[in-house]
Amino acid sequence: MMKTKVGMMFLAFLAAYGLSSCDFLDKEPNKAVPENYFRDASEVETARVGVYATLANSSFYGNTYMNLVAGDDLTYYGGGSNRISTTGLICNNATTGDGSTSGLWLALYNGIDRANFFLEQIDNVQDVDLTDALRARYKAEARFLRAFYYFNLVQHWGDVPFKLESTYSTGSVSGKDIARTDKNEIYAFIVKEMAEVADEETGGLPSARDLGFLPGYVSKSAAWGILARVYLFWAGEHFRDNEPAPAEAQERFRLASEYGQKVMNNQGHSLAENYWDVFIDMCSDQYNTTANESIWEVEFAGDYTGSVRSEGRIGNIFGPSGSDYSSDSEVTGSADPGYSYNFLQCTPKLYNLYGYNLKSPESEGNIRDERFIWNLMPFGYRGRIKDDEVSPKGTLGRTFTSEDLYKWVTGQIEGCATYQERSFDYDGEDEGTEFNGDKTQRGDVWRTVNTNPTYDTGCGKFRREYETVAKHPKNFTSINFPILRYADVLLMVAEAENEANGGPTDLARSCYNEVRRRAGVSQDAADYGSQQTFRNAIKDERARELCFEYLRRGDLIRWGDYVEAMHEQATSAQGGQANGWGSIGRTVAPEFFNVPESYQYFPIPEIELSVNKLITENNPGW
Q1: Position with higher pLDDT, 229 vs 8
Q2: CA distance 466 to 484
Q3: Confidence class for position 413, pLDDT limits 50, 70, 90
Q4: Left if phi > 0, otherwise alpha if psi is -120 to 50, otherwise beta: which for 351?
Q5: Is 283 helix (H, G, I), strand (E, B) or coil?
Q6: Residue 124 domain boundaries
Q7: Which of 162, 196, 352, 497 has minimal Cβ neighbours within 10 Å of its Cβ?
Q8: Radius of gyration of the chain from its Cα atoms, rounded to whole angstroms
Q9: 529 occurs within a structural domain
Q10: CA-CA distance, 351 to 345, in Å (whole number)?
């Protein structure tokens, strides 16, 4: 099924929304003001898309959100040579004036303001094309998105200003200072809103089936799955405040399981046949071609040549490394798989969680988890060296980490699934031989494994080579990003069942096993009989399944593991190559991982403190 992109860049609405001058209340019929902006169904649709647009904002999933949440025990910012990010918390150097932090704060509140404005105005529109069913659906979407933006605020900042009316609702932009509201009050609002709009009888959201399982818009499945996520985080909120678990925690785990099961029951979702299928779809402008696994995605589109900008940075800020051919129009197809800065490096911890023995792949107990060769790059693209006039322009082949990985990815190991048939095939006279140091070798080659190999490698989850654009721009991609996948729902239900019942239930084991078996591994939940052993198994499985999807940091915080897990990686990196760390990891990772307790919350941005006089203090430690 080819993908129909949602128009994410809502320029007309942005222009109208920016009006805040002294003549804002003028009643000129051609001026876009609250009293006359929503005139017909088409303008309602434009405003509706504007509420969604916050998701793709460059301060959110569009770009710099990575600098805030991608630093965890599985990944660190290590692209290039000793590279340090100057914004965000990812390099442990943030301040209250941090640009990425303030950008996300402003983007989320802008999205909330758009939703509030939309909800205030939609019932004023009388247009036969805006049917009662559409009106109910649009209002439900706006309510859900507003709740989702608030969840991101409390997840990262805790107590925050809480408002349910637009900035311009009173016709004035003055007197708008708002004190922080207790996060538990906001959580109660979030779960109530999400549950109501997804109610099977009275909620306005359509089912995923009614949407044809196209995950660009919010469905009941998306709302239920995110509700499970909210309840799990709320159940663990007490950890970052060093408080005992509240009496309500068990009920929150139960509700997380209940809403996750709603997604599972009769909704038509299942895991894709192969782990990489869902990501290849996201990269190649398709939806759920093998199964309805993707439930909610952030939409991006284009090749940065049109008049409307709706591209993102997924696959560019982190992805397989290679040379930049964006300025050479002659280099296309497999010769130009797309440029990535490869900023995110995996820690040896993530590498080792897959159970793959690089030095002895045939050894007893070695695990061939299919997610390993997709999530962690088993190769790098090898391009023509500068001033070489003999070799063709562009990428000449791939250099694999080992001969075994070359054979695995190229389908030469019996019983091991591979994505090779859907990827570029680099043929050449040196295909299948050892890399001899000559970058002009043509075809896929492999390296000999070092005596002490390093395991900090780049992210391979979002691969630009699958994009359908005629020519890759250097810094922008059309690759969508998953907010919620069915695999995540299964693991949330498994975790919630274990916590709510004092140990793994049959349902918990079934959900865990379903994710494991799709990955091609046989070890299952029967090996984990106690609540603690199953809890640890879920933590590791979420790492293997969901790495690089911006969820791990939140998971660590709600488990009470964040600071300890980060410091463990600092200690590991200081051990250097003996622990599997390469030169970049040894040099920069200890600095990145020695985070203070204050990092369990983001700082309230200086820009907010300077204008909102009812916020008198920052989060602890900031």
Answers
A1: 229
A2: 21
A3: very high
A4: alpha
A5: helix
A6: 1-72+89-203+609-622
A7: 352
A8: 25
A9: no
A10: 11
- Helix, strand or coil for residue 267? coil
Parallel, antiparallel, or unpaired: how do β-strands 344-346 and 75-77 relate? antiparallel
**CB-CB contact of 310 with 56 (8 Å):** yes
Cα→Cα distances 18→228, 492, 611, Å = 36, 40, 18
Nearest to 60 by CA among 9, 33, 100: 100
Residue type, 190: I
**DSSP secondary structure letters along 404-446:** HHHHHHTT-STT----GGGS-----TTTTSB--S-TT--S-EE
Is 331 part of a structural domain of the chain?
Answer: no
Tokens of 193: 């809103």
Residue 80 has pLDDT above 80, yes or no: no
pLDDT in tens, 119-145: 999 999 999 999 999 999 999 999 999
Residue 80 located in a structural domain: no
Query: CA-CA distances (angstroms) from residue 102 to 59, 91, 151, 253?
Result: 9, 16, 17, 32
Per-residue pLDDT of 480-497, as tens digits, reads 999 999 999 999 999 999
HSE-CB at 273 with a 13 A cutoff on CA atoms is 7
For 50, phi then psi, to 5°, come to: -65, -30
Residue 189: which CATH number? 1.25.40.890
How far is residue 448's CA from residue 434's CA, in Å, rounded to a whole number? 7
Q: Do 508 and 257 contact (CB within 8 A), yes or no?
A: no
Residues 6+ apart with CB under 8 A from 228: 256, 257, 259, 260, 263, 489, 492, 493, 496
Report pLDDT for 173. Answer: 62
- Domain membership of residue 11 (yes or no) is yes
Alpha carbon distance, N-terminus to C-terminus of the chain: 48
Q: Where is 346: in which H helix or E strand?
A: strand 344-346
d(CA 501, CA 622) in angstroms, rounded, equals 38
Q: Can you list the alpha helix ranges (DSSP code H) found in 122-269?
A: 132-157, 183-197, 220-236, 249-264
CA distance 539 to 552: 9
293/491 Cα distance (integer angstroms): 13
- H, E, C per residue of 525-581: HHHCCCHHHHHHHHHHHHHHHHCCCCCHHHHHHHHCCHHHHHHHHHHHHHCHHHHCC
Q: What is the rounded distance in angstroms from the CA atom of residue 282 to the CA atom of residue 360?
A: 34
> What span, in angstroms and rounded, lies between the C-alpha atoms of 538 and 533?
9
What H or E segment, with its residue span, contains residue 590? helix 583-593
What pLDDT, on a 0 to 100 scale, did the predictor assign at position 1? 56
- In whole angstroms, give the CA distance from residue 547 to residue 222: 20
CA–CA distance, 396 with 536 (Å, rounded to integer): 43
Looking at residue 17, its pLDDT comes to 39
Helices and strands in the chain: count of H runs, count of E runs? 19, 9
Report the C-alpha gap between 515 and 222 in whole angstroms.
19
3-state secondary structure 102-136: HHHHHHHHHHHHHHHHHHHHHHHCCCCCCCHHHHH
Q: Please count the structural domains in the chain.
A: 1
Contact assessment for residue 229 and residue 235, using Cβ atoms and an 8 Å cutoff: no
Burial (CB count within 10 angstroms: exposed 0-12, middle 13-18, buried 19+), residue 171: exposed
Question: Nearest-CA neighbor of 471 among 349, 567, 590, 339?
Answer: 339
